[in-house]
């Protein structure tokens, strides 16, 4: 049986049992989103977008099952306070997309739900596109070229960067993972050449503006760092990581006047070095994309688990992801107890 079939069977059993989440008072989940869009046609495979309709449906279910709190409020609660209520849920968004303001905010306001937005500060108030957004458009355009045009495009790319994988057959599955292993400058140079070869503009407002950030603050949102330029920390030098963290911290302190600034690792990638640098830069806590339940007593504030919503557009699939994390935690607890008993 395939992994997908097993998951479907497990999900069917979960629904048949009344869809329990097996969470206790004091337990919390942090949910990670990126974009909320009105146009459902943008929800392609691998998309980081969720439709406004699906987002509203998920929030409806979350309000039934959780106490929705701001992430910094959750992290500031004592163990005793946590255990006296809950389970809790905190909503977060990565990157700081413009549609967080135009589409997501009105929905959040209608449910009276707060959110934390992790922004790439050097994109604010610019027409600079995120590299993966521009690359997706390039790939769509490239797929429509004739064979000769594809050969010409590949030759142009190889003149700039020689180690592009799978260059004979450019696909999303080869390019996206390769880009995520490269330093920011190399990624941006590649996407720039690819875009110009296909006459695709790299100028577009993808991110929030400072005016929108202030308006969102007035409506219950807080802002954290996703670095200045969305650099993937482990592939960059220590000096670059330090600069990215310090730059984003300065911007956030200036524009938001928040005391505690939170951090989200771009692409969920980090190393022990990066954890130390983030803590040293003064961030009060950090979220990952490692799924899990946040216990009442938090031991690793710079490795907080978070359930990613990507690919979980239905309410049932998101709730099942929470259930699966809860089951995994119970199994781990049971194994630890059995191990101690044997010893």
Keywords:
single chain; 13 helices; 6-stranded parallel β-sheet; 343 residues; alpha/beta; disordered C terminus
Short recap of the structure:
The chain has 13 helices and 10 strands. The protein has helices at 3-16, 52-65, 71-76, 79-83, 99-111, 131-142, 147-160, 172-179, 184-197, 210-218, 238-256, 272-280, 315-342, and strands spanning 28-33, 35-37, 49-51, 67-68, 88-95, 115-119, 221-225, 262-264, 285-287, 307-308.
Characterise this structure.
It is built from 13 helices and 10 strands. Strands 1, 4, 5, 6, 7 and 10 form a 6-stranded parallel sheet that branches. Strands 2-3 form a two-stranded parallel ribbon. The longest helix has 28 residues, at 315-342. With 343 residues, the protein is an alpha/beta fold. The model is unreliable at 338-343 (pLDDT under 50). Helix 2 (52-65) packs parallel to helix 5, helix 6 (131-142) packs parallel to helix 9 and helix 7 (147-160) runs antiparallel to helix 9 (184-197).
